[in-house]
Amino acid sequence: MSRRAVATVGLCGAAFAVLVACSDTPAPAPATKTVTVPPTSRASSSAPATSGGSSSFNAPGRVFDPRTMQADVRKILTETYQVREVGDVLCPSNQKVEDGSTFTCTVQVGGEGKTVTITVTGEDGRYEVGAPA
């Protein structure tokens, strides 16, 4: 390949790079994602346990354990969402295990208060953790 051809290819590449850098089109916003937490025995029941020592997943009055949820939210934020500097996480108590219900937890990220939306996705204790906003 001649020097002239190499120079032309180099100039075309540089021109393309300048055009891309000067584009008025903003970069697309990162996609919002949610992470579903599988059900465990972490959801507690406010009703007394049956004689068998366990409560039904569909028992009325079941609520999430806020301490367990806080630990799960912290883990999801740091491991799945790759959020750095996650501080205190505070989830409200007495949140019912009720399909379709939503509530928010507050979280400190880099010293700034953020909220994380929790959406219950089933009567079995599954819920989605949204990205911090």
Automatic annotation (TrEMBL):
Residues annotated as signal peptide: 1-20
Skewed-composition ranges (Low complexity): 30-56
Region Disordered: start-end pairs: 28-64
Keyword annotations from UniProtKB, A to Z: Signal
Domain DUF4333, residue spans: 60-125
Domain of life: Bacteria
PROSITE patterns, A to Z: PROKAR_LIPOPROTEIN (PS51257)
Name assigned to this protein: DUF4333 domain-containing protein
Species this protein is from: Amycolatopsis keratiniphila
